[in-house]
Amino acid sequence: MGTTKPSEYLNNAASVIYQEYPLSLMGQDYLLPSLVYQLSPLWSLSSSVISNMNDGSFINTSQLEWNITEDSLLSGSFILASGKQSALSAEKQSEFGDSPNSFQLVFKHYR
After folding, report:
1. How many domains does the chain have?
2. How far is 24 from 13, CA to CA, in rounded Å?
């Protein structure tokens, strides 16, 4: 399905399988490590990475949660993307290099 050459990502994405099915990964070889750790009964940390082994790009999603009270939660998360950025939109240099970085802070109160 995918390809090992970043220059072929956009052409390959126009193929039938990408149009008919909800596929989003464009390469062939990936490493997907993840970590979930309960720091204490009120704090938890999670992180996962999708790493494209063909072009060296990756995207990391990490989250820290704090259960403030029985019915309140504070959560902070970020998405960090890394890879070669494309000079032209018609040709990608890496799968995740053009993805934006983001940060999110969420407060939830259940009642």
Report:
1. 1
2. 9
Residue 58 lies in a domain: yes
The pTM (predicted TM-score) of the whole model is 0.78
Contact present, 74 and 63 (Cβ < 8 Å): no
* pLDDT tens readout for residues 50-77: 999 999 999 999 999 999 999 999 999 9
Is pLDDT larger for residue 16 or for residue 52? Answer: 52
**What amino acid is encoded at 11 in this protein?**
N
Give residue 82's domain range: 29-109
- Cite the DSSP H helix spans in 1-111: 9-13, 16-20
Q: Would you say the C-alpha torsion 86, 92, 94, 95 has a positive or negative sign?
A: positive
Domain assignment of residue 67, yes or no:
yes
Q: Which two structure tokens, joined as six digits, stand for 101? A: 């970085």
